Amino acid sequence: MARESTGVIWMNGTFVPYEDAKIHVLSHVVHYGSSVFEGIRAYATPSGTAVFRLDRHVQRMLDSCKIARIACPYGYAELMEAIRETVRKNGCAPCYIRPVVYRGFKTLGVNPTGVPIDVAIATLNWGKYLGKDALDHGISVRVASWNRQAPNTFPAMAKTGANYLNSQLIKLEAVADGYEEGIALDVFGYVAEGSGENIFLVRGDTLYTPTVASAILPGVTRDCVITLARHLELEVREEQIPREMLYISDELFFTGTAAEITPITQVDRIPIGTGAVGPVTRKLQKAFFDIIEGRARDAHRWLFPVEATGKVQRAAKKAR
Ligand SMILES: Cc1ncc(COP(=O)(O)O)c(C=O)c1O
């Protein structure tokens, strides 16, 4: 397998060479999926390397810990700085950042009481998640035979390792059947999300996306797209979406840190709209990439420079 990770990995406050970043096979997380994690991107902008929406990602990781009852040994400010330091040290941009909080090695019982909680941060050389052409030409997806989790089973709002068996099944099924990705419905039959992406529909002048009650992860990119769409004076509606709305939408796209804004041009082999990438998707892609690649003013303060001075840090904090 190609070496995906770069440089050093931050483990419990110490930088460890890539080859030495190991855990014990009897760690609780290996058996029970007891972890929470984030997926974050750093971009190369004209004013240096910047981490995209670092504040939101760190906050969501701490929220996930709270839901999963994992007492993270590091706080918000420490995680913010550790992530920036890892990117700085590895000198990588653009790159993907993977912080993970996990139950480590002590006893193998399901009850995690007394099991240590460890934290690691790695950077990876990930390119375009859904393929090189996906952003320009769109992808073909199927509606998954697997639903997202029922309410009060697995916590969909938490980005926990255990939830991702569901994502793996959705993705494996889609790829085995010749599609790039799957769209899962919730247990009531309403549209939820992709295996690792939120979804948006365009119909007329309105943008629709499922509510957080439809078993979705509240995506950071989803939040960006809602903000950008409102600035473009589009009506945005978060509501329950029946499956058939997918087929009659004018445009459809996925959002996610890995997927960014990826157009969907076919669902279950049915062309969406004209079957080509639509104008609203293109407008939102442009607004998004102009900010993250530093061509437009960062009006929403979404970029966190890794080399930030105290002054910049204080300004970013104040804006929150
Ligand atoms: C299941 C799931 N839904 C949605 C998303 C999109 O979230 P974000 O935009 O924060 O990356 C992700 C990716 O993290 C995901 O894994």
UniProtKB/TrEMBL annotation:
Acts on leucine, isoleucine and valine. SUPFAM superfamilies: D-aminoacid aminotransferase-like PLP-dependent enzymes. Its cofactor is pyridoxal 5'-phosphate. It comes from the Bacteria. Belongs to the class-IV pyridoxal-phosphate-dependent aminotransferase family. The gene is ilvE. The lineage of its organism: Bacteria, Candidatus Eiseniibacteriota. It catalyses: L-valine + 2-oxoglutarate = 3-methyl-2-oxobutanoate + L-glutamate; L-leucine + 2-oxoglutarate = 4-methyl-2-oxopentanoate + L-glutamate; L-isoleucine + 2-oxoglutarate = (S)-3-methyl-2-oxopentanoate + L-glutamate. It comes from Eiseniibacteriota bacterium. InterPro entries: Aminotrans_IV (IPR001544), Aminotrans_IV_CS (IPR018300), Aminotransferase-like (IPR036038), B_amino_transI (IPR005785), BCAT-like_C (IPR043132), BCAT-like_N (IPR043131), BCAT_family (IPR033939), Class-IV_PLP-Dep_Aminotrnsfr (IPR050571). Its EC number is 2.6.1.42. Keywords: Amino-acid biosynthesis, Aminotransferase, Branched-chain amino acid biosynthesis, Pyridoxal phosphate, Transferase. The keyword Ubl conjugation does not apply. Pathway: Amino-acid biosynthesis; L-leucine biosynthesis; L-leucine from 3-methyl-2-oxobutanoate: step 4/4; Amino-acid biosynthesis; L-isoleucine biosynthesis; L-isoleucine from 2-oxobutanoate: step 4/4; Amino-acid biosynthesis; L-valine biosynthesis; L-valine from pyruvate: step 4/4. This is Branched-chain-amino-acid aminotransferase. CDD domains: BCAT_beta_family. One of its GO terms (biological process) is L-valine biosynthetic process. It is an enzyme of class 2 (transferase). The keyword S-adenosyl-L-methionine does not apply.
